Amino acid sequence: MQSQQPQSTQEITQHVHQWLSENWDAEADLVQWRTLLAESGWGAAHWPEDYFGRGLSVEVSAAIEDVFADFGAVGTAQTGVRMLAAATLLEHGNHEQKRQYLRRILTGEDHWCQLFSEPGSGSDLAGATTRADLDGDEYIINGQKVWNTSAHHAHYGLLIARTDWDEAKHKGLSYFILDMHQPGVEVRQLSQMNGHASFNEVFFTDARIPRENLISTAGNGWQVAMTTLAHERRSFDRSRENKRVKQKGRIFVELKKELDISNEPYTWYPQRAGRVDLVMQRAEETGAINDPVQRQEIARLHILSESAKWTAQRAKAAQKAGKPQGPEGSLGKLAASEIARLAARVHTNISANDALLTGPTSVHDGVVAEILVSVPAVSIAGGTDEIQRNIVAERVLGLPKEPRFDEGPFRNVQRNSAAKDTSK
Amino acid sequence: MAFIFTEDQEQFRDSVSRFLKDKSSTVDVRRLMATAQGFDSMVWQQLSQQLGMTGVHMPEELGGAGFGPVEMAIVCEEMGKSLYCGPYFASAVCAANALRIAGDELQQETLLPEIISGEKIACLAVTEDRGIWTDEVFSTAATFSSTATRTDNGHLLNGRKRFVVDACNADTLIVVANDDQDFGFFVVDAAAQGVSITALDSMDPTRKLADVEFTDSPAQRLNNSKPEQLRLLVDIASTALANEMVGGAQTLLDSALSYTQLRFQFGRSIASFQAIKHRLADLLLELELAKSAAYQAAQTLADNALWSTNDQTADIDKVTEHASLAKAAASEVYLHAALECIQMHGGIGFTWENDTHLWFKRAKSSEVFLGSPAEHRERMLTALCAQSTDLRNSA
Ligand SMILES: Cc1cc2nc3c(=O)[nH]c(=O)nc-3n(C[C@H](O)[C@H](O)[C@H](O)COP(=O)(O)OP(=O)(O)OC[C@H]3O[C@@H](n4cnc5c(N)ncnc54)[C@H](O)[C@@H]3O)c2cc1C
Predict the structure, then answer these.
(1) A81 exposed, middle or buried (CB, 10 Å; 0-12, 13-18, 19+)?
(2) ipTM of the complex
(3) Contact across the interface for B384 and A302, Cβ inside 8 Å
(4) What's the structural domain count of chain B?
(5) Regarding predicted confidence, which is higher, B393 or B145?
(6) What is the pLDDT at residue B388?
(7) Does B294 touch chain A if contact means CB atoms closer than 8 Å?
(8) CATH number of the domain enclosing B159
C-alpha cells in the first residue's frame, strides 16, 4: 500500500466508491470477495494498516460502510463474537496471531465463541477453575464452561483457564485461542426459557492448545479478558438487524447462508431488548392508546428510552470532543435493562390475553410473547445488573470496594462445593 | 448544545456557579427563607447587572445578552443546585418570555429593559382556584374566570389568581384573563388600583407564593396575545424548571454520597453496604437520564426559534413533547433523590438542622408546580401522538 497524504472523509469515500465500481461483482465468490476487501484495507478501514485496515478513524470507517451500503456491495463479516475476538487480538495478540486469525474473521469463514463463564464462576469470572497445564509445547485443557453463545457454530473459542493455582485469583489465569473442532471438546446446546437454544455448555477432556495460541503472557489472562468485556459492554445495544438479503447474484446466495448461521443464535435479541419500537403500533392496534392508565405507562417508557438515547449521545459527543468519559457511558447497560423490563410490562398490558399466544395465529407471529420470555436475559448476560451497579458505584461514584474473601493463593479460596474440584 | 456544551457555555456556567456558591450558601438560604421578601436585593442586583443572568436569553437591543434557552437553562440548573432564593424564575423566565411572545414591539421596548436589568421584577399569573396549568394547553377555549373588560383607554381586570410565584415582590404582573373574544395576556402594575396581593404560607419557604385579587384594576393588553401562546409559555417554564430540578437533585446526590462515606456503622462506612451503594448507582442513572432530558428540552426550544418569531418551520409538538418529558423525568428524580438522601442520613436527616429538608421541600413544590409528573406524561404523549398523526397525514 502506498503511503498517502491525509485526505478528507469526502475524498476517501469518493475513492472507495471508485474502487467499488472497479472491483465489485455480485457474481463473485463471497469468501474471495471478502479476501479482496481484507487485502485492500477497505473492509475494516479503522484497523491498522498492517492488519487488513487503513488506520483510519472509526467515524471515517463508518462513512465507508455507508458507501458500501449505498452501493449495494457486501462488506466484511463484522458481526457477533468474532468481533470481540478481533478487538482482543488487535489489542493483545502478537504479529503471527493477528496475521493468522484476523483475515478469516473479516471473510466470515470462522465463527467464534466466548468461553468465560463456568458452572462455579459467572459474575466472579476470575474464579474460573478450568485448568490449562503446560505439557511440552502444548497446554492440556480440562474442565467445563457454560452459557457460551454460538459455541455450536464456532471454529474457535476465546478461553480463560487457570495456569497457576498458587497465585492469587486474578493472577493465575491465562487467555487462549482454542480450536473447537478437536476430540477433547464437546459442545452441548442448552434450551432456554424462551425456547431458543443459543447458548451451550462446553466440556474439555484433555483438549489441546498449541503454546503459540496463548494470547499475551501466562498469568495475564485477566487483563486480556477485560478488553473483551469492555467491548462486549460497549456493543450491548448495537442492534443486530437481520439484513434482508434481496439483491440478486451468487454472492448474495452465499451471504444469506452465512448470515443464517451467524444470526441464528440472535433472532430473539431484539425481543430481549423489549421492542420499544413496537409499542405505539400495538397501542393503536388494541386501542390502549385511548386508555388513561395505559397512557401513563407508555409515556414512562417513552421518557426512559428517549432519555437513555440522549444520554448515550451525550457520552458519544463528550468522547468525540476528547473529554474524559463522564458517567453516562457506564450507565448504558443498566438503562437497557430497565427499558427492557418496563417494555415487557407495557407490552403485557397493551396486548393482555393476546400477549400469551405464540405461533402463527398469534399477533405479530408470537413476537409479544417472545418479548416477555426473552427480557429476563438482558439483566444477566454480559454481567448482571448487580455487578453493573457495583461497577458504577465503585468506579464512577468512588464508593468503597466490596469486602474481599478471596485473597491469597487461589488454591485456598472457598469455592462452590457443587463445582467439580479440578485444582488437584 | 448538540449533546455537549460549548466552551463558552461551560465558562458561563462556571461563573454563575462561583457566584452562587458565594452568595447563596445554605446559611443565606435559611436566612432569606425566613423573611417575607425571601431574597437579597443586593445579590439580585449583582446577578442581573454584573453577571447579566436575568437577560442572558433576551435580545441585545433590549439590554440582554442575546443568547437563548440553553443559557437560560444553565442559570436555572445552577440556581437549583444552590437553592437560590429570588425571583429569577418568575421574572426572567416566566414574565420576560411572556412579554417577548405576546407583546408588540413597542410594549417590549417599554417593559422589557427594566426587567432585563433587574430593576423591575415581574411575575406571571395564570392559575386560579383549581391551580391547573396543563389542561389549558391544548384547548384554546377560555377556561379562566378572570375577565378583562375593554374601556376607552385599556382594560379593567377582575378576578382572582392563585399560587402566583413571587407576586409579593413584583412591580409588574402579567395576567391571563378572558376578554371579549378569548383569553389573552394583560399587564398590570402591582401598585395599581384594585390590586390586592396576599402572601400564602407555603410548605416550601424558598419559593414565595401569593394570591392576587383584581377589582376593576387598569390593565394593558399585550397586543400580540394569542391563546396558544400559553402552551409555549408552559413549555418554556417547564423546561426551565426541569433544569432547576436536575440541579437540585445533583446537590442531593452529592450530599448522600459524602455523608454515606463518612458515616461508619458495623465497623465500615455505610456506603460500603450494597443496599446503599446500589441505590446510589440507580440514583445516578436516573439523574443522568433526567439531565439529558432537561438539556434536550432546552435545545429543542432553541432549535425551534419559537422564542422570538412565528417561525413556520417550528415544531411546537416536539417542543411540548420534550418540555413535558423533561418536567416529568426531573420531578420524579428530584423527589426520589430527596427521599433517598433523607433515608441515607438516618435520624439526622429528619431534623430541621440538617439541610436536606430544604431541598426536599423545593422538590415537592417543584413536583406540583406547573403540573404533576402524571399530567406532564399525558401532555407529552398527546404531543407525541400529534406528531405521528402529522407524519401519517403528510405521507
Ligand atoms: C443469554 C445469555 C448469553 C450468555 N452468553 C455468554 C457467553 O457467550 N459466554 C460466556 O462466557 N458467558 C455467557 N453468559 C453468562 C453470563 O455472563 C453469566 O450468566 C453472568 O455473568 C452471571 O453469572 P452466573 O450465571 O454464574 O450467576 P451468578 O454469578 O451466580 O449470579 C447469581 C445472582 O447473584 C448476584 N451476584 C453475584 N455476585 C454478586 C455481587 N458481588 N454482588 C451482588 N450480587 C451478586 C447476581 O447479580 C445474580 O443475580 C450468557 C448469559 C446469558 C443469560
Answers:
(1) buried
(2) 0.95
(3) yes
(4) 3
(5) B145
(6) 79
(7) no
(8) 2.40.110.10
